[in-house]
Amino acid sequence: MKQIIECVPNFSEGRDMAVIEQITNQIKTVEGVKLLDVDPGAATNRTVVTIAGEPEQVIEAAFRAVKKAMEVIDMSKHSGAHPRFGATDVCPLVPISNITMEETVAYAHKLGERIGKELGIPVYFYENAAKSPERRNLANCRSGEYEGLPEKLKNPAWEPDEGPAQFLPKTGAIAVGARDFLVAYNINLNTTSTRRANAVAFDIREKGRPMREGNPITGKIVKDEHGNPVNIPGSLKACKAIGWFIEEYGIAQVSINLTNISITPVHVAFEESSKKAAERGMRVSGSEIVGLAPLKVFTDAGKYFLKKQKRSVGVSEAELIKIAVKSMGLDDLKPFHPEEKIIEYVLQEKTGKKLMDMSCSAFADETASESPAPGGGSISAYMGALGISLGTMVANLSSHKAGWDDRWEEFSGWAEKGQALKDELIRLVDEDTNAFNKIMDAFGLPKSNDEEKAIRTKAIQDATRYAIEIPFRVMKKSYETMEILKAMAETGNPNSVSDAGVGALAARSAVMGAYLNVKINAGDLEDREFVASVIAEGAEIERKAKQAEEEILAIVNQKITV
What mean pLDDT do residues 535-548 have? Predict the structure, then answer.
């Protein structure tokens, strides 16, 4: 599974589109990086750019953009409404999928180190990437702004984390960080009153509302000993909100920024807004995600609402998204298209049609053709996927069985595990064919001299190793499905016990078929130590799979009466 991060560099130019395009054109030169958004602001004289992709490519694109900004922006002539201290003012990295914050911080440090060493720009690390507590807050790092940099850089306490403590009049400094994903999210209300929408916003936002003496609306604002207003905190952490009226739709909304969706997920903000609106005599009619959001936002929401209904969460990704959209009314104001709103979907490469995109008959026809791929490896993975699909079906049927209402969570857990294994095995159907194609590509490399021969030999060996690793993973994942299939045979809906048995037959066949592919590819690999290890472990997996199949079929046949 690919790791995906987002990068949101802010450049100190928002008026000259020719300059902005020079910067964004550098991002486009990096293959695999998607330029998601370019948002220039004339008043702030600042452009916020959003890019996403795999980490190495993203930080390469960010570096090229920072380098170009250094060339085309002159900070000595800059003015704007937004705080700033550099040509590329801030450059945060954001984890999106299959990557931790700790890993994202490491990439931020790698990017900052390169900017400091190769471009000579003073670099400050902030938020999660900060190397000291006082630098975590961006406002501290940027205090004094560009005009205060010459003196700031002379202060040993503010020596840059990377790069020289040297003032660059044309470029300034840069803050490189790692932060959580920010979701811009609007709640639709059945009112036109901005004041009432604001009341809900104050109810939920972390900052809350000012404390007042006597009357909570018209009373005098209470202040602390420093003269600052005292606030009554709202109910949601990491939440900023305000009410407004949207002329286009003729309704009031609560406009929300969720600054850390691991603290306050979107579905929690929706539920809390609905609760507070109801307390004030209003109803939430729907909501909207502004811009893009990670897949996890929607799958987590889908699972949350299914659990509220005491239904199994072990359903497909598409079904989870559908439940999220309908539950939160994300299609209330306009149609919701997952391929346009979910970051991972937007980033999907537009490659040739996958095997798993074909119909069942087309897949069979392709397999039966004279082409050597798809072959036994892909078919083994597909058998494994079909086997666990049956087990997952039994789990879902069991969770909904009349009279078993108190067991829905038990079967939901099995179904969720089954869905994950099914998705992985489906991915491996195409990956096995890709592995075969890698070998063919390697054999097609030139070999006219010793250097080319060495490159070709290494490529063949690397591809061969990969062609062993993929079916070996199919073996492991197919064997893992046996646990679920056995549980379904033992405790699942008795009317579907035969389905668990068929699933076990398919899983055992998947293990054995994948092992044949491991062995045939292993004969051409020079790393015999690796081969010996895989063959030995594969034999043990095959033995255990056969044993598990026998145990499951014994249970199934005992329960079937003729």
Answer: 98
Rounded distance between C-alpha atoms, residue 403 and residue 507, angstroms:
30
Residue 82 is a catalytic residue: yes
Residue with the two structure tokens 């069942």: 360
Q: What CA–CA distance (Å, rounded) separates 485 from 491?
A: 10
- Set 161, 180, 432, 499: catalytic member: 432
The residue annotated as part of the active site, out of 74, 82, 423, 524, is 82
| Residue for token pair 């499905």 | 481
What domains can be seen in the chain, in order of their start residue? 4-178 (3.30.990.10), 183-347 (3.30.70.670), 355-559 (1.20.120.680)
Annotate 5-18 with b (16+ C-beta within 10 A) or e (fewer): bbbbbbbbbbeeee
348 pLDDT band (50/70/90 cuts)? confident
pLDDT 10s digits, 122-177 = 999 999 999 999 999 998 999 999 999 999 999 999 999 999 999 999 999 999 99
Check the CA dihedral 398-401-404-407 and report its sign.
positive
Sheet holding 183-189, edge to edge: 239-246, 251-258, 183-189, 284-290
Long-range pairs for 354-357: beta carbons < 8 A, 24 or more residues apart: 354/430, 355/429, 355/430, 355/433, 356/426, 356/429, 356/430
Q: What span, in angstroms and rounded, lies between the C-alpha atoms of 181 and 258?
A: 8
| CB-based burial, 90-109: b 16+ in 10 Å, e otherwise | bbbbbbbbebebebbbbbbb
Q: Are 191 and 282 in contact (CB under 8 A)?
A: yes
Q: Are 80 and 19 in contact (CB under 8 A)?
A: no
Q: Give the bridge partners for 287, in sequence order.
A: 187
405 is catalytic: no
Looking at residue 217, what is its pLDDT? 76
- In angstroms, the CA 452 to CA 446 distance is 6
In single-letter form, the type of residue at position 446 comes to P
- The reply to whether omega before 374 is within 30° of 0 (cis) is yes
Q: Of all residues in the chain, what percent are helix, strand and coil, respectively (each to 5)?
A: 55, 15, 30
